[in-house]
């Protein structure tokens, strides 16, 4: 288990984060400039926090109070940088072997040969980075990060420079290789929620140098804790709550006079909004609970779905309708339906 609790001040920015990460791939998600890459640099020993501690499996890498600051090369951390950061003047073999400096030559050669075989680059050992494709460079960078047999693997937006048409294949190669050859803790920095969803087991969400939510990926995506977190992962519907009532085992939220029944809702301190993802908005023939007459205000056709702006007597919201259902929605009058199990409360 990795325990991180650090602070680092800059003239116009403060990093103040605390989180834990376990085995598997944990995504650090947030917009540019929120401290994601800086956190990785602190973990790797490339930056020194002002306060706090970094502890891996009971071993402190950094502890400001105890004046502990383990050197980078002694932390057993592998680092895959943005754009791979391969040394252009070194061959593939030399790049992979870079972290093994000081080891016996025979040991270095053996480990490099094994790693070249794992990444299926045996025929490219004497080539230079400029002679490789993007996918090959990625494999070399990953091999360099893993050859030291690290306990923690840091991945700093490893797919940010990849052309969109290549991204899916390289993502699959990356995730397959990590799951097959690495059993430790991996931290993946990204600002792309879809990428985080595809690649990660757990998520840590950053905003302006702080952690605003963390947990299992499915839980974080389904139940963001506040509007900031919700916007980061694609929620658009924020219905202002004017009153909340408990009726037996149910919770009812009032939104401009409309009653919304919410199933299994946890009511946070000072809830301000009810939210639902556009993809969870439904349309049904009949029904009474959480159903409303509506009019379509605006539509925008996408490749596989239609984004729809809908207005009711009480509120306006966004819905996503798959294209195969779009014609039937227009042809037959239906009711807008907000399923109680998909509604939840948000703080401001």
Top keywords for this entry?
single chain, 6-stranded mixed sheet, 23 strands, 25% helix, elongated
Word description of this protein:
This protein has 348 residues and is an alpha+beta fold. 25% of the residues lie in helices and 35% in strands. The chain contains nine helices and 23 strands. The strands form six sheets. A six-stranded mixed beta sheet has the order 7-8-9-3-10-11, sandwiched between helices. Strands 2-1-4-5-6 form a five-stranded antiparallel beta sheet, with helices on one face. A three-stranded antiparallel beta sheet has the order 12-16-23, with no helix packed on it. The two termini are 32 Å apart.
Mean pLDDT: 92
| Gap between N and C termini | 32 Å
User: Which structural class fits the helix and strand makeup?
Assistant: alpha+beta
Strand order of the largest sheet: 7-8-9-3-10-11
Contiguous low-pLDDT stretches (5 residues minimum) are none
Q: Tally of extended strands?
A: 23
Q: Approximately how much beta-strand content do the residues carry?
A: 25-35%
Blueprint of the fold:
Elements: E1 2-10, E2 13-21, E3 24-29, H1 36-44, E4 51-56, E5 59-63, E6 68-69, E7 77-80, H2 92-96, H3 105-118, H4 134-146, E8 152-156, H5 164-181, E9 185-190, H6 193-199, E10 202-207, E11 210-216, H7 217-222, H8 227-232, E12 237-240, E13 243-247, E14 250-255, E15 258-262, E16 273-276, E17 282-284, E18 291-292, E19 295-301, E20 305-311, E21 316-322, H9 323-331, E22 335-337, E23 344-346
Parallel strand pairs: 3-9, 3-10, 7-8, 8-9
Antiparallel strand pairs: 1-2, 1-4, 4-5, 5-6, 10-11, 12-16, 13-14, 14-15, 16-23, 17-22, 18-22, 19-20, 20-21
């Amino acid at each position: 288990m990795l325990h991180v609790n650090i602070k680092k001040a800059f003239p116009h920015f403060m990093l103040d984060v605390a989180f834990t990460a376990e085995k598997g791939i944990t995504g650090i998600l947030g917009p540019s400039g929120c401290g994601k890459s800086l956190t990785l640099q602190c973990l790797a020993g490339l930056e020194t926090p002002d306060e706090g501690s970094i502890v891996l499996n009971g071993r402190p890498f950094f502890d400001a109070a105890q004046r502990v600051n383990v050197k980078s090369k002694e932390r057993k951390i592998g680092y895959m940088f943005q754009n791979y950061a391969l040394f252009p003047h070194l061959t593939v073999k030399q790049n992979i072997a870079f972290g093994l400096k000081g080891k016996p030559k025979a040991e270095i050669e053996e480990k490099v040969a094994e790693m070249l075989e794992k990444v299926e680059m045996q025929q490219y050992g004497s080539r230079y980075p400029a002679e490789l494709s993007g996918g090959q460079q990625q494999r070399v960078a990953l091999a360099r990060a893993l050859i030291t047999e690290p306990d923690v693997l840091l991945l700093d937006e490893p797919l940010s420079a990849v052309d969109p048409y290549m991204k899916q294949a390289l993502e699959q190669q990356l995730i397959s290789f990590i799951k097959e050859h690495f059993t430790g803790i991996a931290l993946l920095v990204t600002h792309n929620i879809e990428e985080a969803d595809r690649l990660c087991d757990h998520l840590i969400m950053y905003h302006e140098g702080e952690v605003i939510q963390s947990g299992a990926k499915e839980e974080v995506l389904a139940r963001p804790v506040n509007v900031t977190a919700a916007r980061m992962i694609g929620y658009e519907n924020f219905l202002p709550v004017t009153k909340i009532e408990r009726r037996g085992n149910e919770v009812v939220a009032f939104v401009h006079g409309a009653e919304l029944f919410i199933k299994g809702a946890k009511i946070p301190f000072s809830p301000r909004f009810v939210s639902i993802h556009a993809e969870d908005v439904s349309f049904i023939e009949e029904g009474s609970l959480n159903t409303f007459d509506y009019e379509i205000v605006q539509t925008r056709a996408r490749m596989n779905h239609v984004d729809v702006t809908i207005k009711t007597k009480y509120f306006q919201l966004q819905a996503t309708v798959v294209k195969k259902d779009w014609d039937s929605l227009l042809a037959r009058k239906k009711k807008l339906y907000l399923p109680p199990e998909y509604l939840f409360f948000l703080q401001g």
